[in-house]
Automatic annotation (TrEMBL):
GO terms for biological process: DNA restriction-modification system; methylation. Coiled coil: none annotated. Residues 10-157 form the N6 adenine-specific DNA methyltransferase N-terminal domain. Residues 171-468 form the DNA methylase adenine-specific domain. PROSITE patterns: N6_MTASE (PS00092). Pfam families: HsdM_N (PF12161), N6_Mtase (PF02384). Belongs to the N(4)/N(6)-methyltransferase family. Its EC number is 2.1.1.72. InterPro entries: D12N6_MeTrfase_N, DNA_Adenine_Mtase, DNA_methylase_A-5, DNA_methylase_N6_adenine_CS, Restrct_endonuc_T1M, SAM-dependent_MTases_sf, T1MK-like_N_sf. Keywords: Methyltransferase, Restriction system, S-adenosyl-L-methionine, Transferase. It catalyses: a 2'-deoxyadenosine in DNA + S-adenosyl-L-methionine = an N(6)-methyl-2'-deoxyadenosine in DNA + S-adenosyl-L-homocysteine + H(+). One of its GO terms (molecular function) is DNA binding. It comes from Escherichia coli. This is site-specific DNA-methyltransferase (adenine-specific).
């Protein structure tokens, strides 16, 4: 089998398992169990691989817990961020799952133990609450303990049977790939709510390339509306690890999605000291203000959500919003995310942000914010995409590219609305489409019906309308 066939077969198997084990429970409501079990298996195998360190004479899973010394434990936590005893490993728990009448209690104890192993260590915040959504007492699993255990055993056995390769065979990315596949399928089936936590990989690829374009290295990459982390991780897939020096940063408002994002980082083999995902409202409780500005920012924030805006009198003096002299409307926070990203961007940096088209032509506060962005020469490019590229919305959205190091005062417009391939219910961008967009983005040349660079004076004469037309 080719690697592509292998991957397709793995995806088919995973989705079948996800559907088989959920019973009558809605897939969206059951996702944390399948994703959580995949994560549990990953960190178990990752941890065993670290302890064994390529020594074939050691099988960590077969060791007795009593042989683990405090020094071994301390060293492991400092390196990996957590500790798992042999008896707590996924393979050992899954092996006895069908006959363990204490399975739900045992799993809960193990998850608590893994989490508490990080207490007092630098990794504490990165591990804390990771298993919070894997509720082994939930009635979603069944009404009786027996029913709950049977459902949990089915999940563990299903994930146990996945052929995810050997950790030493460089197939580590199969775990991350499986996780992303599951998340994208859950998102596709969840409609509107799915689109809010997952950006399709083909669009993520374009956004990552736009933000990282021309950079031989960036200090770190940031997403102010991180969702499940898929957009940040595209940068890892697109560029060598050494290019992103200090790692991956993000903030997410939804607790379940925040946990998915942190798991996603681990599953893509990003160590706890190379990522920092925070929980909270980016617009009103922003993290990372004391950090150095970011060289690359990617984001697909929620479209036109309500926010507190002018009801909070302190926000107009906030350093993120004050320079524009006006706040984004309370009913449409889109430009609040844009101004937040601009404030967090370094002098050499670029931000690529998915935006609702209305913000580019409406009057009032949004026009004043556009004027501020154009007058200060922050708008590099506006790209209009084809409709129906995202989950949960058929609307054709735009990508706004901001830069603090432009070499001229023109604004580039790219009309990519005809660049798509129809697949099942959604449209997708192919690699050829992405390459075509990136070529005109890089050259800034005018191409009939595709790209045009417009002078500052023309934008001003058009009342700062930034619609691609």
């Amino acid at each position: 089998m080719t690697s592509l066939q292998q991957r397709a077969e793995l995806h088919r198997q995973i989705w079948q398992i996800a559907n088989d084990v959920r019973g009558s429970v809605d897939g969206w409501d059951f996702k944390q169990y399948v994703l959580g079990a995949l994560f549990y298996r990953f960190i178990s195998e990752n941890f065993s691989s670290y302890i064994e360190a390529g020594d074939d004479s050691i099988c960590y899973a077969k060791l007795d817990d009593s042989v683990i010394t405090d020094d071994i434990k301390d060293d492991a936590i400092k390196t990996k961020g957590y500790f798992i005893y042999p008896s707590q490993l996924f393979c050992n728990v899954a092996a006895k799952a069908n006959t363990n009448d204490r399975l739900n209690a045992d799993l809960n104890s193990i998850f608590v133990a893994i989490e508490s192993s990080a207490y007092g260590y630098p990794s504490e915040a990165d591990i804390k609450g990771l298993f919070a959504d894997f509720d082994t007492t939930s009635n979603r699993l069944g009404n009786t303990v027996k029913d709950k255990n049977a459902r949990l055993a089915a999940v563990l056995k299903g994930v146990e049977g996945l052929k995810l390769g050997d950790f030493n065979e460089h197939q580590i990315d199969l775990f991350g790939d499986a996780y992303e596949f599951l998340i994208s399928n859950y998102a596709a089936n969840a409609g509107k709510s799915g689109g809010e936590f997952f950006t399709p990989q083909h669009v993520s690829k374009l956004i990552a390339q736009l933000a990282m374009h021309g950079q031989t290295h960036v200090n770190k990459i940031y997403d102010p509306a991180a969702g499940s982390g898929s957009l940040l991780l595209q940068a890892k897939k697109q560029f060598d690890n050494h290019i992103i020096e200090e790692g991956f940063f993000g903030q997410e408002i939804n607790h379940t999605t925040y946990n998915l994002a942190r798991m996603n980082m681990f599953l893509h083999n990003i160590n706890y000291d190379k990522f920092d995902i925070k929980l909270g409202n980016t617009l009103t409780e922003p993290h990372f203000r004391d950090e150095k500005p970011f060289d690359a920012i990617v984001s697909n924030p929620p479209y036109s959500v309500k926010w507190i805006g002018s009801d909070d009198p302190t926000l107009i003096n906030d350093e993120r919003f004050a320079p524009a002299g006006v706040l984004a409307p309370k009913s449409k926070a889109d430009f609040a995310f844009v101004l937040h990203a601009l404030n967090y961007l370094s002098a050499k940096g670029r931000a690529a942000i998915v935006c609702f088209p209305g913000i580019f032509y409406r009057g009032g506060a949004e026009q004043k914010i556009r004027q501020y962005l154009v007058d200060n020469n922050y708008v590099e490019t506006v790209i209009s995409l084809a409709p129906n590229l995202f989950f949960g919305t058929t609307i054709a959205v735009n990508i706004l590219v901001l830069s603090k190091h432009k070499t001229d005062t023109k604004v580039q417009f790219i009309d990519a609305s005809e660049l798509f391939k129809k697949e099942t219910n959604n449209n997708i961008l192919t690699d050829a489409h992405i390459e075509q967009i990136m070529q005109v983005f890089a050259s800034k040349e005018d191409v009939a019906h595709l790209a045009k660079s417009v002078t500052f004076e023309t934008v001003v004469a058009n009342d700062y309308n930034l619609s691609v037309s």
